[in-house]
Amino acid sequence: MIFLSSPHQHSGNSIQLTMFSVIIALIPAAMVSVYLYGWLAVFLLTTCIGMSLLTEYVVLRMMKRDTARLWDGSAALTGLFLALVLPAAVPWWIAVFAAVFAILLGKQLYGGLGYNLFNPALAARVVLLISFPLYMTSWLIPMHMGAMLDMYDFSSSLSFFFLGPDAVKQTWDAITMATPLGYVKTELTQGVTVGEALANYQYSTLNAFIGREAGSLGEGSALALLMGGIWLMARHTISWHIPVSYLLTVAVFAGIFNLINPDVYAPPLFHLLAGGLILCAFFMATDPVSSPSSGIGKIVFGVGCGVLTWVIRTYGNYPEGAMFAVILMNCITPLIDYYIRPRVYGYKRGKQA
Amino acid sequence: MFKLFDMLKGLGEQLHLKPQHSFTGGVHPQEMKKTAGLPSMTCPLPKQIILPMKQHIGDACEPMVKVGDYVLRGQQIAKSQGYLSVPVHASTSGTVTKIEDHVIAHPSGLGLPCIFIEPDGKDEADESLYPLPNYRSIDPVELRERVRSAGLAGLGGAAFPTFIKLVLDQQYKIETVVLNGIECEPWLTNDHQLMLEKAHEIVTGMDILMHMVDSNQGIIAIEDNKMDTVDVMQRTLVDMGLDASIRIEVLPTKYPQGGEKQLIQVLTGKEVPAGRLPIHIGILSQNVGTTKAIYDAVCLGEALTERMITVSGDALPQPTNMRVRLGTPVAWLLEQCGLSDADGIKVLHGGPMMGDILTDMRIPVVKASNGILAMRVVTLMLAHHQEDPCIRCGDCGDVCPAGLMPNLLAMHCKEEQFEKAEDYNLFDCIECGACSYVCPSHIPLVHYFRFGKGQVAQIRREKSFAEESRQRSEIRDARIAQELA
Amino acid sequence: MHVFYAILIFAGLALLIGVVLALASRYFHVEGDPLSDNIDALLPQTQCGQCGYPGCRPYANAVASQEAEVNQCVPGGERTMLEIADIMGVEPKDIEEEESVPVVAYIREDECIGCTLCIKACPVDCIIGAPKQYHTIIADQCTGCTLCLEPCPVDCIEMVEVPELLEHWSWPVPGTLRAQVAEKRRAVHHEANHEEENV
Lengths: 353, 485, 199
Description:
The structure holds 3 protein chains of 3 kinds. Chain A has 17 helices and 2 strands. Chain A has helices spanning 15-62, 74-85, 92-105, 120-131, 133-136, 154-163, 172-175, 180-189, 194-201, 205-210, 222-234, 241-260, 268-273, 277-284, 295-315, 322-331, 333-339; strands at residues 139-140, 176-177. In chain A, strands 1-2 form a two-stranded antiparallel ribbon. The two termini of chain A are 41 Å apart. Chain B is built from 15 helices and 17 strands. In chain B, the strands form 4 sheets. Chain B has a 6-stranded mixed sheet with strand order 1-14-13-17-15-16, sandwiched between helices. Chain B has a 4-stranded antiparallel sheet with strand order 2-8-7-4, with no helix packed on it. Residues 12-19 of chain B have low confidence and may be disordered. The radius of gyration of chain C is 26 Å and the shape is elongated. Among the domains of chain C are: 34-88, Orthogonal Bundle (3-methyladenine DNA Glycosylase II, Chain A, domain 3), CATH 1.10.15; 103-161, Alpha-Beta Plaits, CATH 3.30.70.20. The interface between A and C is small, with 4 and 7 residues.
C-alpha cells in the first residue's frame, strides 16, 4: 500500500472529457465550414487533425512517453482548431506544415500538454500568416454565393487542394474575395466612409451572424460558435469570464469610437460579428493552458484581448487582430497569474490579515 | 477596480438581492448517504478496548492506572499534560491488561501509547462526576471545568479540546452560538441521526453553551438535504420555549459548508481573520455531537465514553449508525455490520473527502471518529487515478473555499519551493479536498499541500535544532580556547 | 577637439563613480563576513567533519572564500547544497545523498569505563559524565556526528535510529524515492507491531 491522501472521491472529470467536450462544441462550426466550402473544408479538416495526431504520436514515441496520451484529445483538438482558423484556399502542404508546427514547436517542445506558453493552433496560424501572406489572406468565395459552384465538387476540390488554382483553370482573382474586415480596411485608406464601404460590400448583419461571409473555415458563423460556446459554459468546461469580458471590451471600445466618428470607426456589432473574434473569444482565449487560472485574472486577460483586438483592427496593418491579441496576451499570462491572485479567506485585499 | 466590485457586492446585499451569504467555491459530491434515517444501533462491547493516550489535537495524556487495575466506565485513566489537552476515561468497566504502543488512526500508520482494557461485561459506571441539571444557576467557570474533565473534544472530526473554545474572557464577548449540523461529507449521517434521536439533549446542550458564554442568540445550521431534522429541531425548540433565542437556518447543500470558517461566513457574512479564531469575531461554533456530549457531561454527569459513528461504505452489507464505545477496534465494528472478509477492501476513517485510509483493522475508534467506511479498493482507485499533467484549467481555484490557487501551490510544493508555496498561502489551506475532487488531471493536490506543510515544519525544526547546536558548539570552542590560554 | 571632450567626460565620470563607491563602502560597511555567516546559518551544525573541515563554521568560511566546493556537507543533503549554491551564485553540483535515517549516539553504560574521551570529542557538549563514572548522551541534543565513536577505547558507543515520532511525521511526496523509503519504514514498523502481537 502506498500513502494515499484524501479526498477519496472524485468528480469523474478528466482531460479527455474536457477536450472532447470542446471538440463536440466545435462540430456546428465545422459543419458550417463544410456548408461554405464543401469538400475543401473536409480535406482541410481531415489533413489538419490527422497530421496533428501523427505528429503527436511520433513525438511521444521519440520522447519515450506514454503513447496513450495521444487519445487525451488535446492533439485532435489542436488539429481541429487549426483547420478552423485557416482560409479554405490553403494547399495541402501548408496544412501539413501548420499541423506539424503547432504540435512540435507550439506544444511538445515546451514540454507537452500543460506547459505551452501559446495556444498551439494560434501560434501556428500566426507563423503561417507571416510566412505565407498570399495564401493566408486569400479568401475563397463561399459555395452559396454561386460564382464558382463547379469548384467545390469532389474532384475539383481535390485537385485545387493539391495543385492550387491552376489545376481548376482559375486565377486567384476569379475565385477569391475580400472579407468584410479587409474590405472596410482597404476602403478606409481610399477615403471611403465605413457606411459606404459596408453598403458597397452588400454587408448584412444577418449574413454575418449565421456565417454566410468569406473568411477562415470556422470563424464565419457566430450562431454556430455561440451554440458551442454557450453549451461549454453551461457544462462549466469554460468559464464566462474570458468570453464576456473580451466581447464586452471590444463592443465598448468600438461603441465609443463609433459615436465619436462613425465614418472612420466601424460600429460595435460589425466588430463583434466580423472575423475570428467569436471563435477566439470562446475557444482560443479560453484555452486553459495559456490563459490565467483565477477569475479576476481571466477578466484582466479578456479585457486585454479586447483592447488589443480593437487596436490592431483599427490601427494595425492587418485587418484582423483577434488572433494576434490572444497570442500577445498569452505572453503575459504568467505575469497575470503572479500579480493577480484571488483574495484569500481571512485576508483583506493586499494580503494583510 | 476591486473597490468597485466590493461596492457592487455591498449594494447588492443592501438591496437584499442576495438574501443569504455564501462561501466562495465549493463542490457538490455525490451524497451517498445510505444510512440516512436508519435508526441507530448500539454496538456490543468488544473483547478488548484500546484507548490511545491522545485522541485530540494537542498534547498526549499520561496514564494514571497500572496493569491489573480494575476500572469503571467513565473513570479517568489518563491525565492531561499541558493546557491543550483533555483527559481520557475508561469506556467500560474491566481490567487494564497492558499499557503499550499500538497503531492508531493516523495516516502514518505509527503508534502511540494506549491503555488496553479487558471488559468484564458488567459495564459498571463511575459516579465521581455528579449531575448538574440546574446548569442555569451554576457558575460558567465550574461548567467549563466539567467540560474539560469529562474529556470533551470536538466530535465533528477535528477533535479540538472543547473547553478551550469556551473562553470566558470578557475581552471577547461571544454574541452568537452556532450549532453545526451541516455534515457536508458524503456518506456520513451520524450527526443527522443524532439530531433526529437526541434533539432534546442537543438543544439543552446548546442552552448550556449559551448560558456559559452569556449569549442570547443561537443559530442551528442545517443543510437542505436533511429537512426531516429541521422539523424535529423546530418542534423541540418550541417545546422547550427556546424558539425566541435560537433560530434554525436551512442552507443549500454544498461541500465544505461544515467547515467552521465557511459556516461562519455563510451565516454571518463575516470572515475569521487569518491567524485568529471565531471567538475574535464573537462567534462560538460547536458540532451537534459535541453539544450532545456537553449535555451528558453537565446534566447527566457522564464523561465522554461513547459516540455516534456512521458505519457504511460500498463494501459493507449492513450499513448503519452505531453508538460505539471509544476504544472499540474497527474490525469488531465492521463485523457487527456483516463484514467478514476484508479482501479487496480499504477502510476509511472519517468521510471520503477528508478522512484517511486506515492502515490496520485493529485500530480503535476515538473521539474524532465520525465515520468508518469500508470501501472497495476499486472504488477508491477511481479517485486515485494516475496523475496527468496540469492543464491549468483553474477549476481547483474556482472551487477552493479559501480562495487559494491550488495548481500553482501544488507545483511549488512538488518542486520543493516551499518559500514560494508559503507566499501562495500554503498554511491557509484547510485540506477540504475540493480541488483534488474536481481536478481533471487527477493531481493529488491535497497530498502535495500536506507534503509541503510537513516539510516546512521539518525545516523549521531542523533550523532551530541547528541553531541550538551551533550555540553549544561555539560555547565549547570558546571554553577550549580559554583552557589553552 | 572632440576626442578631448570625450576623454574629459569619461575621466569625470570615472572620478564621480569612484567617489560614490568609496563613500558607499564607507557608509554601508558591514562588520564580519556576511557571506560565511549566511552559509553557516544554512548548515545543519552537526559539526561532524565529513566535509573535511573541523566543523560547520570552518567549512562555511572555506566555501565563502571559494576554497571548498558547495557540495561537501553530507548531512545537509541536496537541499543545503542548493541553498549554498544559490547564495554563492554558482551552479549546483551533484551530491551523494543516501536517504539516511536520523541517528543519535547511545552509550551502553554497563560497558563504559568512564574515561571521558568521548566527552572531549563531542562538538556540541551533549555527553555528560565524570572520570570513573558512567557517561551518558543527551539524545535530544545529539547531532549524530559519530565523532565520539572513534575515541572510545572499549567501543561501547553505537549509533541508534531515532524513533519516528507521530507528531513529526510528514506526508511523503506522491510517487518519489522519499515516499518509497517512508513506505519501507512503515512496513518495518508494522512487522514489529505484529511480532509483539504474536509473542
